[in-house]
């Protein structure tokens, strides 16, 4: 009975995290990138403010749980690397979303699950099935279909693909760091780990904002009169949603096998995000891109080990 209740709890947390991810990233952040961001100064200010919101959420969580404590040197280092990877993943994803389709961008980014999934095999001996290796092959093949040069100025360019692949690597690194920290003696330092991570995320974003604002003299359009309330609401929702996702996912990374948690979470997020992009944002894909999207979806299902 105890195992059953724990499983139900983990699944419930997974669904809750998935819902928060869809709201904060697939809907809010995508809409902000496509309709409101005019330059890099806008982008990095949004990232800095939303990261600060996430940081406040973690500090409040630590105060409520009475888990606020100084991080160990190991947790501080891991948190700093995690924060840098999260920051650059967000930047690369948002830059890709400015010009590329939400549906296909997230196929590539969410396929990064293969990195932490295989890390479970390499570092902890967690088994990987033959169908999952086939899934990896289909995932790589879907990348080939991502860029359609015959469509002209659709955003699905080589630059877009490189941005997606950069986000792919950073997002995969985030998953590996979650798994490593939660399997270390410092796993009790979850709140300090996330607090350090998002403090670093905020500092990196703020530094980039100041660079583009002062050195490049880019105008700050998202904070113009009449736009501040919208900016604040978007940043608050994104920051809160990202905080919830990271807190829950950090726990689940240690509570569930990597080869199950990462494919299931990322796979469900990818499929639902694709539906949102195609139905609600009216995105259009070429036949070649549809083939790639289908291959990517099949890869997700195989990585989830549905044939075992």
Features of this protein?
308 residues, mainly alpha, 11 helices
Can you put this structure into words, describing what you see?
- The chain has one domain (2-303).
- It contains eleven helices and no strands.
- The chain has helices spanning 2-35, 40-65, 73-99, 102-110, 114-124, 130-144, 158-182, 190-215, 228-255, 258-279, 287-303.
- α5 packs antiparallel against α10 (258-279).
- The protein is globular and about 55 Å long.
- It starts with a helix and ends in a 5-residue tail after the last helix.
- Mean pLDDT is 82; it is low at 151-155.
Question: Layout of helices and strands, plus pairs?
Answer:
Elements: H1 2-35, H2 40-65, H3 73-99, H4 102-110, H5 114-124, H6 130-144, H7 158-182, H8 190-215, H9 228-255, H10 258-279, H11 287-303
Can you give me a brief rundown of this structure?
This protein is mainly α and 308 residues long. It contains eleven helices and no strands.
Average pLDDT metric: 82
Number of domains: 1
Number of E-type strands:
0
Q: Assembly type of the shown chains?
A: single chain
Q: What general form does the structure show? A: globular
Biggest sheet details? none
Query: What's the alpha carbon Rg, rounded to whole Å?
Result: 19 Å
Beta-strand residue percentage: under 5%
């Amino acid at each position: 009975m105890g195992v059953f209740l724990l499983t139900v709890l983990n699944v419930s947390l997974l669904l809750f995290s998935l819902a928060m991810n869809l709201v904060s990233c697939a809907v809010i952040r995508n809409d902000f990138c496509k309709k409101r961001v005019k330059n890099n100064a806008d982008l990095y200010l949004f990232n800095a403010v939303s990261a600060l919101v996430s940081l406040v959420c973690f500090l409040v969580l630590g105060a409520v749980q009475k888990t606020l404590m100084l991080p160990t040197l190991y947790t501080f280092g891991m948190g700093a690397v995690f924060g840098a990877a999260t920051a650059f993943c967000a930047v690369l994803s948002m830059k890709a979303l400015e010009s590329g389709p939400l549906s296909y961008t997230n196929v590539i980014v969410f396929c990064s699950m293969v990195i932490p999934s295989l890390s479970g095999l390499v570092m902890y001996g967690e088994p990987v099935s033959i169908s999952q290796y086939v899934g990896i092959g289909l995932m790589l093949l879907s990348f080939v279909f991502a860029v359609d040069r015959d469509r002209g100025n659709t955003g699905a360019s080589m630059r877009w693909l490189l941005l997606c692949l950069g986000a792919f690597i950073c997002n995969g690194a985030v998953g590996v760091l979650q798994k490593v920290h939660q399997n270390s003696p410092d796993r009790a330092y979850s709140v300090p780990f996330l607090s350090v991570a998002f403090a670093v995320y905020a500092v990196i974003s703020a530094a980039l904002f100041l660079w583009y604002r002062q050195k490049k003299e880019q105008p700050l359009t998202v904070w113009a009169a009449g736009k501040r309330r919208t900016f604040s609401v978007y940043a608050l929702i994104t920051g809160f949603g990202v905080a919830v996702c990271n807190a829950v996912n950090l726990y689940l990374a240690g509570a569930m096998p990597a080869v199950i948690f990462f494919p299931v979470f990322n796979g469900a997020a990818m499929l639902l995000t694709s539906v949102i992009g195609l139905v609600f944002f009216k995105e259009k894909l070429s036949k070649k891109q549809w083939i790639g999207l289908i291959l990517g979806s099949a890869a997700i299902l195989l990585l989830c080990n549905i044939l075992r």
